[in-house]
Each structure stands twice: as C-alpha cells, then as structure tokens.
Amino acid sequence: MWRSLRGALRCLGVKVCRRSVLLVVLLWLASWLFLNGLVFVHRNMFSDFCTDDKSKEILQRVCDEYQQGVLTGDLCEDLCVAGRVEYKRCLYYENGKKVMAASWRGVPVVLKSKLENFSSYEALALLEYQDAAGGAGGEEELSPLDVVFYATLEIKNSLGLETGTNLTLPRLWGQKLKENERTYSRAELASLWALLQQEEYTFLRVLQDLTHHVAKILGSCGHFYAVEYLAAGHAWDQHIFSLEELTLSPSPSPWSGQEKMITAKDMVPRVALSFLEMVEHFENDFSHRLHLCDIKPENFAIRKDLTVVAIDVDMAFFEPKMRDILEQNCTNDNDCNFFDCISNCDTTKNRCGPKRRNSNLQVICEKIFRPWFSPTLLGAKAGLPLQVELQRAVQECAEIDGGEDARRTRAVREQLQDLLVELIREDTGNQGEGQEHKMRRVHTALNF
To answer: Cα separation of 322 and 324, whole Å?
Structure first.
C-alpha cells in the first residue's frame, strides 16, 4: 500500500513539475514576444513620431550644413541667418518624409523633404568625376549644358517621360543657365540633385508653370523645399474645406474690392466646378494623360479663389509610368488594383492590362461628389428638382466604366458642369434676400 502511495506521489510530482516547466516556458515566450513587439512598435512608429523638438533639430542640421558649404538654396539665408523663416509646427512624418508648417517673411508655407538627412540622398556622379579630374591636375568645371542634361535624365526617370515631349523644366533651366553663363558650385549642384530625387518636387516643379491646379514651390534649402500653405481637405465627417483656413492662404480672393461675401452655399458648386476643370486639364492638356491614384479630400486643397489644388502628388503618374505600374502579373482582377487606378487581368496571360479601366473623373464622382451631394446630407433640399438631377448625374458619373464610350463620359461631365453652373446662378439670384447664408453659416452638405 505504501509502495503504491509513493508511486502515486512520485507520478503526481512529475506531472506538477512538467506543468511548472511548461508554465515557465510559456511565460518566458510571452514576455519575449511582448518585448520584441514593443521594440518593433518603437522602431516603426515612435522613432518616426512627429515632434517639434525633432523638427527643429532637423532644420538645425540643415543650417549647420549650409554654414559648412555642403548645401544651399534661396531659402537658406532667411532660414539660417536672417531669421525670416519661423517654424510653426510639425505636420507629419511618414516613411521618412518630413512635413512642417512655417512662416517665410510672414507668408505661411509648408517645408517638405522625402528623407530626413541631406546625406541620405544619392550623390551626383558628376561631382565625383569632378573630384577625380581635379585630383589629376586641375578642377574641371561643370558646364550649364551638363547640368541640364543630367537634370533632364533624372526627370525622365522619375516621371516616366521622354525627354523630347512637353517637358518645360530642362528647357526653362537651360534658358536661365544660358543667360547666367556661369558655372555652379558643389553645394548648388548637390542641392539640385537631392531635390530632383524627390518625385513630388520634380512633379510640382515641372507642372507649376503649366497649370494652377498644383501647389507652387516657393523656394528651397538643400533637400527641403517650401510650397504654398493652402486650406487642405479633411477626411473625417463632412468637414471638407474650412473657411477659417482660407484666411491663411496667400492667394488673392476673387471677391477682393467687392462687397459680396463668400457664402458656403456659393462655395460648394464652385469648388466642384474646379474639380471638373482639374480633371479635364490633367487628361487633355499635357503630352500624356495624368492619372491620380490616391483621390481623397486631404490630398487636395483650395486657394482663396476656390481653385482646387493637388497638394500630395506622390501617387500621381503620367501615362507611360502608369502603364508600367499596372502591367503586372495577376490571377484575377483584384490583383490589378493599384489604389484608385485599376485595370483588368488577362487570365490567359496572367498579366494585368496596361490601360487603366477607370478614370480620374469616375473616382472623384464616387469618393468626393457623391458624399457631398447625397440626399442624407442635403436634408430638405434633396427634393429640389435641380438637386435631384445633380444627384442622378453624380451617380451616373460614379458608375461609368473606363472602357465605355468616350462620348458618354464627356456628356456626363458636361451635364455635371451645366448643373453646377445652374446652382451658382440660382444662388446668385437669391443673394440679398436675407442673411441666412453668410460666411460662417454651415452648409448641410459641405461643412466648411
């Protein structure tokens, strides 16, 4: 009996011991996973957390390198010496991209750079060749034509454009270089090369002289460039553009010198009309169609004259590059969705088609116009004949397939334009009948 009891206790002890060991191992594994999770979160989130202290440190490094002659730009003197650039706040950090709000000589601007440090950008090979030539017995200067040639190649690679097409930047710079007839310092060339490696800078710089629907570049210092501060859209609720933010925009108002006040009711169709104008412009007025693959309110802004402006163009591509992006391997149509730009999958070849199936107009109607003019938001006004007709036109526009007849697409766009113009005329005819639509009044469809 005692022998049986001792055996039972020994067996019980082994089981308890095994459970204890298993419990310790599980606790250790859970702790290890938890600590590694914290490290991962810290490295991927908090290390790139947007703070004022870090932003000021970054700008201070830019100024230190400017004082050392490493980088330069027309913004540097005011930023680093004269104190005419006043840092305001950090806007966001994302995947290395730094974006900050500042004031330059009293004008609100946004400072941007794709990478934090100037040294993170690829060095210009011409400068290394220049060093080698200088070490061999005399420094060889870079001609203006060298600068234009390499700038042109970088733009071609960045935007997917051919150098012989409608590419104004090298032509514009080439004319200025010819007029100046001077060589450029290492700091100037290195700064230019760092800027050209940023697709957004290149895109904005190429287009700002061709269209008023992109944000304007105002200056640069090293790898940071300043763009105009505009009233950006908001993704939350239906607060799209704020009237209060419009006061920060340096753009002139179309109502300057007039007694007419900006009304929210008047702004809605005018902003929508500007969206239509932008779509028409991007699709027809360049050598290649321009595709917007990330359409959402926060990627657009408005000036005081209510012009819609594309302010985040990291996902904007001309036709040649768009074709390269879309033409990928696939097994079904879902594999051919590149954000808001989609194509069809050819299952016989397991290859996505290079032609985009939808369009900028269709996505804007679906993701921006349809929420703006929905019956739920319009309330009692939703039953008005003009509003009903507009809602139907927006719905038809949102359902247009990119492969459909171009004539139908053009007809839908023209119908939208006519209805929006009619809304503006209707509002203009009702002005002076009361004070219910003054500037601070909130529109039921668009909370400005």
So the answer is: 5
Tokens of 4: 């049986």
Among 287, 263, 267, smallest CA distance to 275 is for 267
Q: Do 372 and 403 reside in the same domain of the chain?
A: yes
Which residue in 404, 398, 279, 403 sits closest to 333, CA to CA? 403
Asked if 416 and 268 sit in the same domain, the reply is yes
Tens-place pLDDT, residues 203-242: 999 888 889 999 999 999 999 999 999 988 886 655 577 7
Residue 115 has pLDDT above 50, yes or no: yes
- 3-state DSSP helix/strand/coil percent for the chain, to nearest 5? 50, 15, 35
Query: Which tokens sit at 265?
Result: 């009711």
Task: Return d(Cα 93, Cα 111) in angstroms, integer.
Answer: 12
C-alpha 147/C-alpha 190 separation (Å) is 11
Q: Cα dist. 92→98, 110, 331 in Å?
A: 6, 11, 37
Concatenated DSSP letters of 253-322: PTTTTSSPPP-HHHHHHHHHHHHHHHHHHHHHSSSS-EEES---GGGEEE-TT--EEE---TTEEEHHHH
Counting Cβ atoms within 10 Å, is residue 311 exposed (0-12), middle (13-18) or buried (19+)?
buried
Asked if 220 and 270 sit in the same domain, the reply is no
Name the pTM for this structure. 0.77
* Beta-bridge mates of residue 291: 317
In the beta sheet, which residues pair with residue 232? 301
pLDDT tens digit sequence for 329-345: 999 999 999 999 999 99
CATH code of the domain in which 250 resides: 1.10.510
pLDDT reported for residue 282: 94
The tens digit of pLDDT for each residue in 14-23 reads: 555 566 666 7
Centroid of chain to Cα 236: 17
